[in-house]
Queue: 2 jobs
Job 1
Amino acid sequence: MLVECYDTKGAAVYELIIKQVTHDLQINRSIKDMRVFIDPREPVFIIAVMVAKTTQPVFIEDLATYSYEAEEDKTTIRIKDETYLPNLLKKLWDIEGREKIQQPSRFEIIIESPSIDIKEMVVVDPVENLKRKIYDAIFRILPEGFRVIKDLSEDNIVAMACTDELLREEWIDKGREMIKDLKTSNSSL
């Protein structure tokens, strides 16, 4: 982690805040590297966080078998592994709506008149879940009142340039430089 600030004591305090927030959200081990630039005189706060590798996504095929019955216009899902059943139900409710989803037993789900083909559906995506937690951490770390935000995220890097006034192009460029620096310094790891 590298925190840039004209005030070394301020940089040390921010480093402490960042460590505390990432520890509280239990994501400190999921962050491969980080760059932060702070200048309260401007005022600007720029952060770039490189996400560590996570486990592979969980597909519906990993936890269930399924079939579509055309005559009845329904898809029946038979659960093999209950571990991600709550995630699957939430995803189906979000896509199809609760009224079309029935669960006659712990191991069976029926979708009436399905609007999607569930083949290769991602039930849990650890990368997206981790990125959501990192965004949460960033919003906790941001200085109070910094509500003008430009999301600069790309690939496995979550990055933002923030201020309480108009964002300057030079700050956005600085954020992009920080992303480039993260990629370069971590390319050999």
Job 2
Amino acid sequence: MLMEIAALNGACASAIDSGRLEDWPEFFLDQCLYKVTTADNYEKGYQAGLIYADSKAMLGDRISALREANIYERQRYRHILGMPLIVGAPDGTATAETSFLVVRTMRDGQMIVFAAGVYLDKLQRNDAGAWRYSERIVVCDSQRFDTLLAIPL
């Protein structure tokens, strides 16, 4: 199970890092939750997030908006992922925590550490038996982002 979930995390990050954003929603179940928040807001129990989607369809809409409507400076991410810590796996589900670091490279070549934090994931197997996210809460250590958070983390 550990290696399957690590492989899912890697494939999901690769889809984002390589610009295959249309593939990214496929790592989620149809009914899912994806939220990006700060550690401070998470600890206080705040429900709102910098990004909030409660279905795979909303994730697809976000990608469509990025491609067709939003205007933002071209950038690229590179994820560095820790090994997932499987917290629990009752009833065919799994709960995992995975540390992450995202380096952002801008069009002019400038690179910065854009985000660091932890993925808090709930996972289930889909009809084909593959692990998919039923919930991914992206908890960022910092409260500050120096630009619009356009691309999913």
